[in-house]
Structures are given as C-alpha cells and as structure tokens.
Write a structure and sequence with these properties.
Layout lengths: L20 H7 L39 E4 L3 E5 L4 E12 L2 E11 L4 E5 L1 E3 L3 E3 L3 E4 L2 E3 L3 E5 L5 E10 L2 E12 L2 E10 L9 E11 L3 E4 L2 E5 L2 E7 L2 E4 L7 E3 L2 E5 L3 E11 L5 E10 L4 E11 L3 E14 L8 E14 L7 E10 L3 H4 L13 E12 L5 E12 L4 E16 L11 H4 L2 E15 L6 H5 L2 E16 L3 E23 L4 E23 L2 E6 L6 E17 L6 E7 L5 E10 L14 E16 L10 E16 L10 E9 L4 E10 L1 E3 L5 E5 L9 E14 L32 H9 L12 E12 L6 E13 L5 E10 L4 E2 L3 E8 L2 E8 L6 E8 L8 E6 L6
Length: 881
C-alpha cells in the first residue's frame, strides 16, 4: 500500500570497446609497415551515446524502509480516502522508528500517521502513544507524523532527558536529533501528574542526550510561580560527564566579614580522571583554596586526591591583635583491584598537614573533623614471588602526627622482606609428626629510615638531619608436638641481628662537670638470641540442668598454659663512662654504664639475664537455653562470657620483686548482643613503702589484701531502637566510641546517595498513621581508674551518645554529644534537623556551644543536575587566633 506508482526506466546500450590506433602502436614495440593510402589522422575515437548520461534522475522513493504494522482488534483500509485504520494495541515499525498506541490512522494521500489513545468507560484514557526512535522515548497524548518529511507534531509529550523529565504541551520534531517545545515543564519529580516543582520553559530547543536551550524560564512550586528565573537557560543532557561552574554558598562572619565558600569549577578531563577546584573568599582578605580529584580504571585501581589551603587573617593591619596564619591539608586514597595483579599490590592512605588545620579551618565542611587529634598516612607496595618457599617484600612510607603536641613521626621508607616457612626434616609426602619432622625456620628482614620532627620543621633541612636508619634480621626456629595425647608443646629459639648507622658515645667532661653524649655516624651491629617453650591444653566442663529447665546447660571452656623464657645477658655491648680532662685525655671511668646502641631503632641488647615462667588461663562460658519459638527443635546457644583471661609471670633469675602483676581482662555481649562490655584490671601482689614505691614484700604481709588494685578500665556501648530489625538481630554491638561522634557534613553537596535512595524505595511504608515513632540511640561509656602510687583517682570518666528520631516519614532529628563526668562539662555537641521534601531536601545543622558554635540552613534540589538551585544560610564560628 505504501509503494509509489510512478516509475522511470531507460535502456542503456552496451558500451563498445573503442580502439585508439596511436595508443596501440605506441604500446607495441614493433615496426609496422603502413599503406600510404591510409591516413591515421582521419581515424577518430567513437563517442559514447549521450543517452547514457541522462539528465533526468529517477524520483526518490518516499518510503525507504519496510513498514510493518499490527493491531489486536482490527485493521481496516478505506480505498477511497486512502486511509488505513489500526485499533487496540496497534503498532507500526518503520526503520528505527516504532509507534505503539490504542488507535493509529495512516493517511496514504498525505503521507501522515496519526496515533492516539482510546477511551475506556472504567479506566478512562488508556493506551496512549509511545514513540521510540534512536533510543529516545516519547509518551504523548497524541502524535502526528509525516513519513515523507519525517517531521512530527507531538501533543503533551513526556520524555526523560538525563535525570529530569520534560512535559511539553506541543513538541515539533524536526528530525531524530532536534525537537522544538512550547510551554514545557522540566522537573526531576517522581509524580509527573502533580509535580511538586518544575521549571516552565516557554520556548525551547531539545537535542536529545546533549542539551536543552530555552528562552524565558522560571521556577514554579506546586503551580505557583516564583520570581526565581532566567531570561535564557542551558541544561546539559550529556550522558558523559561535562565541565561546568560550581555555584558558591555565601554568609557572614563577625571576624572576617562577608564570604563566599565552595565556589569553583569542575573539569571533566576524561572518563578516568576529573578535577574540581574550589575557592573561599572573605572580605577581610582571608581566602582558601581546595582541589579534589577522582580517578578510576575499571578492574585496575581507583582513588581520590585532595589538597586544601587556607590563608587566615585576624583583625586589621595596624591593630595589636592583627595576625596571619596559613594552614593546609593533603589527603590521598588509592586502592588496587585484587584482580589487576594478584602477586603485587599498591595502596595509599594519606592524611597530613597542619596540626591545627581542622581546629582553625573556616570551611563548614571540616566541622565533623574538629575532634580529630591524630593524622596518619601509609603508602605501600608489596610483591610476592611464588615458589617453595615463597618470597615476599614490601616498601612502606608511614606518617603519624599528633595534632596536640605537633610531633611528627615518619618512616621514609620501611623495607620488609621474608622467606616462607621451611621444614627441612619433613617427609616429602604425608603429614608431619613428632618433634623432629615439625622443625621449621623462617627468615625476615626489616629496614627503616625513621624521622622524628615537629610541625614547624616539616620538610625542612633540619628534619632530615636527625634521621635514624638500620636493619633488623630475624631467624626463628620452631617445633611443636603432642605430649600425653592431651597436651600441646611448642618450643622456639630466635636469632636476632641488628645493623645500625647511628651510635653514640658518652664521656664525662670534668671541665663542664657533666656527661656529654655525642652521636657517631657509621655502620655497627649487635646480635642476640633467646629460647622459649610453652605447654597448654583445653579443658571442657559441662553443667547439665535438664531439658525441662529454662537454662538447660552451661559449658565452660578453660585453656591453661605455662611457658618458660630465657634471655641471656649481653654485657659485652655495655661499657663504663670515661672521665676526660681538659686536654682530652682519659683519666678514669665512672660506674655508670651505657650501650653505644642506645636510641637505636630496634632496641638494645639485654643487659640482665632473665629466666621467667609465665602462667595464663583463658576462659569462655556459653549456655543452652530453651528457645522462645515453640517450633524450634534445638535449644538456643548464647554467650555468657566471651573471654575472661588471667596472666602473670615469675622471674627465676630475679633477686627481688620476682612476681609480675596479675593482668585480668574480659568481655561479653548482653541484651541480645545489643550491648558490648569490656573490662580490664591490674593486680599487684607487692606493697608500697611510705614514699609510694614498690617494695619486696607482699601486700598481704604488710597488713593489706592479697592483691593491690593498681589500675582498671571499663568500656561499654549500647544500641537502642524500637525497630525489630531481624537482619541485625545477631549482630554484635560495636565497641568503637567513634560510632557516636559527630559526623562530617559537606554542605556543598547535599544530594542523597542513589544507593540509599533505592533502599528507601524498596521499603515502602504504609500510608496508615504509625503511632510508634521510629527512634534509635547509641551510647558509649568509658571509665579509667589509677592507683599506682596510692592516688586512688578516676583518671577519665565520660559518656558519649548519639541518636535519631524520625518524627514522621519525612522529618528526622539527629543529635550527638557527650558528657565529661570527671570535669563536669558537655563535649562537642551537634544537632541536625532534616526534612525530605520529595524532590527537595531541607536541613538545619546547629552547634549550640563551644568555640565552634555555628549553624547552617540548607534547602535545595536532590538531583545532581540542579544541585546549584539551592538556598543556604549559615553562621560561621567566630575565632581568634
């Protein structure tokens, strides 16, 4: 039916081969005798028939592709009107174009296709058209398509463009890559029938998957116009990341005036690498700079790098309190995919900078790190050589920085190498048995270049002058075997050799009247060895109360062990302090001894012979209880005591104070594993004299108890919630105090994580009113007791807590704080109020007191495309340097 009835035909004569005698003669290298009658100049080339270059070109067919159509109810053709009617679940395929609708009319005379939905008495307007071409999907109320020009008029179309949706009254399709729209609504709302907000685009041009260019556009909230608008607009719709401006947030601070924060530019450099540059500016002259980079190569590695710098000015030039301060911070995180290289691995976790960066930083995104007292970094590379035995080595650079003392410790680098365990006397096949076959040895080496410096000398010349370096070699020889079937015996001897490039010398200067210590550069070494053995077993005890009891049985597991250690004395590495006169001559020696290896990286050789016996007992308690579930066939197992350990030692070679203090530690989970409890104590059997020094006399013989409690600690964490989460029912409670600390809030990026959004969509709450308001509370308690020298005091005592209350499905309140019970004061406190406004998000964060007292109000669109459409108001903390 779509075949054009006009056609043109033309017969072309067969081309005759034309021979050029001149060319033929020149081609052949022969002598030709010619007749004088023949004139070669009269022989001409025969011209081609002019009909072969016909100026009338055949008319192009209107339909260049095969058209297929179908419908469920009927397909009817009106020959007089040249129209084809398709009804109910109608569909047309034409090239890469597909139209589905309830009703489709094809006008062959006008080369037009008209598609619309059908009306149902119960469901209303159904089977609306769905127009698909080139991966673009349009769902209008109706569509008129011209098969000749391939243009279309689309009425009330709904198309997805990137993260948003365009709802247009009239859309004119020019081709598959250009659309013109009129009175269109652009929104990221889920409810397209009644969107809570949209941007009205009065006129616009849409290039699918590339851009939307509009004229006058302004924001509507629930069909109410707002004065927020632009005379023209540009909405990028690229499926790839693109570069663009990052809009700042603004505010005022008493000390530094008005400010702009987090203004910047995003560079989409490639699919594997990007860069975001931010800047902060304050009207008193203070400024900040931040660069953040993310990179990733699938199945190989991924990471991010950021550098932050702030130049802070206090007061005004000429005033006595005028001050300038610069702070910086560098962070780098790199991880390698395990499949990239199984035998080698490179990783990095770097966090270094000014010790007072997080305390003095003006940018609000650093508020959550205010309590951070330690900065740590590690960059490492490791390699394994498979074989028998295997060989491993690694290179690591570490950094540890105390932000209170401003002391920095670094290793640049640390080298570690090891050779796998070797069993020289083991059989080639079968299991190893006995003391001889289980003999094994290893080899390891560790080399360090350690630097200790301060914040003020970081990466200056003085920092490297005091560096210490050395190597430590270690060869342990071990074996183990069974004794009398129930006892496990292990024995080991260890050889240790230390190489160092930094030693000392001490002498007494009679002129100055003091001992002088001088450093010596050069290679030196010492060697030590020791021996140890241990004997242990496991004892099981069962207390059976009967299956009819609530507590059916209690199992006690006890693991006692006894060990023996001997360490020889290496007196040859010690010498007396020499006395030197004014002429530099040695005139005598002091009784004080020293080792030239003092201050070394790997310790000192032992000066005192020691021979000690260690005793330890580990305990574990479990119970079998009747399950509350009547359908359960087996009793329920619960842990009464995860561990309860006792340990001490006796020095056989000592002449006094031979017993070491008894150390006790344990832990358990209570209340269905919601509460984690850990405790520890140190018990000293010896008494103190009047000067609070330990004496060689038992405390019980001095009129006291058997043991003297010298220290104790208790930590507990408890999670409460009114939600019965079956997944977390058997999850152990966290004992990490950081779980209740304030969280870091980045107000420059308030979008909700897509993965979290998907989880929220999976759990669709009931529309009925929930009289139980969801809430959760996390508590962390810690107390430490000290009594080494009869001080009998609580050294620290604190309670930390954080919680969340969902006042409704959209309202939530979070709080984190703590109370120092010893000093009677609240710790850093933060309150967060969040309101989910469907496509929008509103939040209010408040630090009510402390030196960082501040608040921040934010409202903006969740979509990352329109994240700059926001309002933010904040009050920065006032600070004096």
């Amino acid at each position: 039916m779509f075949i054009n009835m006009f056609g043109f035909a033309q017969e072309f004569p067969k081309k005759q081969k034309v021979t050029n005698p001149k060319k033929e003669i020149n081609k052949e290298n022969v002598t030709v005798k010619t007749d004088s009658i023949i004139n070669f100049e009269t022989i001409v080339e025969k011209e081609q028939d002019s009909i072969t270059n016909d100026s009338i070109k055949p008319k192009k067919e209107i339909l260049t592709d095969i058209v297929t159509y179908r419908a469920s109810d009927y397909t009817s053709f009106n020959k007089k009107q040249q129209k084809l009617y398709l009804y109910n679940e109608a569909e047309i395929d034409y090239g890469d174009m597909n139209i589905k609708a309830g009703s489709i009319t094809i006008d062959l005379g006008k080369d037009e296709v008209y598609a619309k939905g059908i009306k149902d008495s119960l469901e209303g307007y159904i089977q609306g058209p769905v127009f698909t071409q080139g991966g673009n999907v349009v769902e209008p109320d109706s569509i008129l398509f011209n098969t000749k020009t391939e243009k279309a008029l689309i009425y009330r179309s709904i198309t997805e463009q990137g993260e948003g949706t365009v709802i247009a009254e009239v859309t004119k399709r020019v081709n598959d890559s250009v659309y013109f729209i009129k009175n269109a609504k652009y929104t990221t709302a889920q409810d397209l029938d009644d969107p809570e907000y949209y941007i009205l685009l009065r006129k616009g041009k849409v290039v699918p998957k590339k851009k939307i260019v509009t004229g006058l556009a302004n924001l509507f909230i629930y069909d109410v116009p707002t004065p927020i608008g632009v005379p023209f607009g540009f909405f990028p719709q690229s499926e790839k990341q693109t570069s663009g401006i990052i809009l700042p947030s603004f505010g005022e601070q008493n000390d530094r005036g008005y400010f702009l924060q987090n203004m910047g530019y995003y560079f989409a450099i490639s699919d594997y690498f990007d860069l975001a540059v931010y800047g902060d500016y304050y009207t008193n002259g203070s400024y900040g700079f931040r660069a953040e980079n993310t990179y990733a190569v699938r199945y190989k590695f991924r990471g991010n790098l950021s550098f932050r710098y702030e130049n802070l000015i206090t007061s005004e030039r000429g005033f006595p309190d005028y001050a300038k301060n610069t702070i910086y911070n560098l962070r780098w995180s790199h991880s390698q995919d395990s499949k990239a290289s199984p035998s080698s691995r490179f990783s990095a976790s770097v966090n270094l900078g000014s010790s007072n960066y997080y305390r003095n930083s003006l940018n609000q995104i650093n508020t959550g790190n205010f309590l951070n007292n330690t900065l740590a970094s590690s960059v490492s590379y490791s390699k394994t050589f498979q074989g028998e035995p295997s060989v491993n080595f690694s290179l690591t650079a570490t950094h540890s920085q105390n932000t209170n003392t401003e002391q920095i410790n670094m290793t640049l680098p640390t080298f570690q190498g090891s050779v796998g365990r070797i069993y020289p006397l083991a059989p080639k096949s079968g299991s190893k048995k006995g003391i001889i076959q289980n003999i094994n040895l290893q080899y390891s080496v560790r080399g360090e270049n350690r630097i200790q410096t301060t914040d003020s000398l970081f990466f200056k010349k003085e920092m490297f002058e005091d560096a210490r370096s050395g190597f430590q070699h270690n060869i342990p020889l071990n074996t183990n075997f069974k004794l009398l079937k129930y006892f496990s015996v292990s024995a080991s001897t260890n050889y240790n050799e230390v190489w160092t490039f930094n030693t000392i010398n001490k002498y007494y200067d009679s002129n100055e009247g003091k001992t002088i210590t001088e450093e010596i550069k050069g290679f030196d070494s010492f060697r030590t060895y020791n021996f140890s053995t241990s004997l242990g077993t496991t004892i099981y005890g069962m207390f059976d109360f009967g299956e009819d009891k609530k507590i059916q049985a209690i199992r006690h597991v006890m693991r006692p062990s006894i060990s023996y250690n001997i360490n020889p004395a290496f007196n040859k590495y010690y010498e007396n302090v020499e006395v030197v006169d004014a002429n530099g001559q040695t005139v005598g020696e002091l009784e004080d001894q020293f080792s030239r290896f003092e201050g070394g990286l790997f310790g000192l050789p032992g000066k005192t012979f020691s021979s000690s016996v260690g005793i330890s007992i580990a305990n574990n308690l479990e119970a079998k209880v009747r399950d509350k579930d009547s359908t359960a066939t087996e009793p329920k197992k619960i842990k009464l005591l995860n561990n309860l350990n006792f340990s001490t030692s006796y020095n056989l070679a000592g002449d006094s104070l031979q017993w070491s203090p008894v150390r006790v530690n344990g832990g358990t989970q209570l209340f269905n594993n919601k509460m984690s409890l850990n405790f520890g104590a140190t018990l000293d059997p010896y008494a103190l004299d009047n000067n609070n020094n330990r004496i060689d006399k038992f405390n019980i013989d001095n009129g006291g108890s058997l043991f003297r409690l010298t220290s104790a600690n208790l930590t507990a964490s408890y999670s409460l919630s009114n939600k019965d989460n079956k997944k977390d029912k058997n999850k152990e409670a966290s004992n990490n105090p950081e779980d209740v600390l304030p969280k870091n809030l980045d107000f420059s990026n308030q979008q909700i994580d897509s993965a979290r959004e998907e989880d929220e969509e999976e759990e669709k709450p009931s529309e009925l009113y929930n009289y139980k308001i969801p809430w959760s509370l996390r508590l962390a308690y810690a107390v430490n007791y000290s009594n080494n020298r009869r001080q009998n005091e609580i050294s620290s005592h604190s309670l930390m807590f954080s919680g969340k209350v969902d006042l409704s499905q959209k309202w939530s309140v979070e709080a984190s704080s703590g109370y120092d019970i010893k000093n009677q004061g609240f710790t850093f406190t933060q309150l967060n109020f969040t309101r989910d406004l469907l496509s929008w998000r509103m939040s209010f964060s408040w630090v009510p007191f402390s030196t960082r007292s501040s608040w921040n109000f934010f409202i903006g669109i969740k979509s990352s495309l329109l994240k700059d459409l926001k309002y933010e108001k904040r009050r920065q903390p006032d600070r004096a340097l």
